[in-house]
Specification:
It is built from six helices and five strands. It is α/β, with parallel strands linked by helices. It has one domain (8-172): CinA-like (Maf protein, Alpha-Beta Complex), CATH 3.90.950.20.
């Protein structure tokens, strides 16, 4: 596994394979690094559907279906934008899970957001999902690598939490 994604990519792929599920990524500031980390492992094609590098705001709107008025009002670096990106790529690429990154890697602020402000999001089956705001320090490479680790860790938490909930429902359903 790549040091960019740390152990997170291996955990994600193992959890997805165990469940027979897939993932798709919508990446802005990470520019493909999340997908690169996920696809570095042999056999990743069984779980990784693909990705959209939505660096431009128009791509977030026109390809991923992020609400235009939301983008106009808040800019691209926003929690709800991240969640809509994750939902959009999940739908677009017919994946069980969608993950997204949007933020400011620097060197300059964007949309009134400071360098290091990042939102990572996960959207999954039956409305499952969450968003995490990060405030990362460091240069561009450090911020982007931290964003990769964070979105993969968030997906692992969602997969683990949903598995426990499903087991509880199944065991308690009789």
């Amino acid at each position: 596994m790549s040091t960019v994604g740390g152990g997170g990519a291996g955990e994600v792929l193992a959890a997805l394979l165990e469940r027979g599920q897939t993932v798709a990524a919508a990446e802005s500031l990470t520019g493909g690094l999340v997908t690169a980390a996920l696809t570095e492992a042999a056999g990743a094609s069984r779980s990784v559907r693909g990705s959209v590098t939505a660096y431009a705001t128009e791509v977030k709107r026109d390809v991923l279906g992020v609400d235009g008025p939301l983008l106009d009002a808040r800019g691209a670096v926003d929690a709800e934008v991240a969640l809509q990106m994750a939902r959009g790529v999940r739908t677009l690429l017919a994946a069980d899970w969608g993950i997204a990154t949007t933020g400011v890697a620097g060197p300059d602020e964007q949309d009134g957001q400071a360098v290091g402000t990042v939102f990572v999001a996960v959207a999954g089956p039956r409305g499952a999902g969450s968003v995490q705001q990060l405030s990362l320090d460091g240069n561009r490479a450090v911020i982007r690598a931290g964003s990769v680790r964070a979105v993969l860790a968030l997906l692992v938490r969602e997969l683990t939490g949903n598995a426990r909930a499903k087991d509880t429902e199944h065991n308690g359903g009789n």
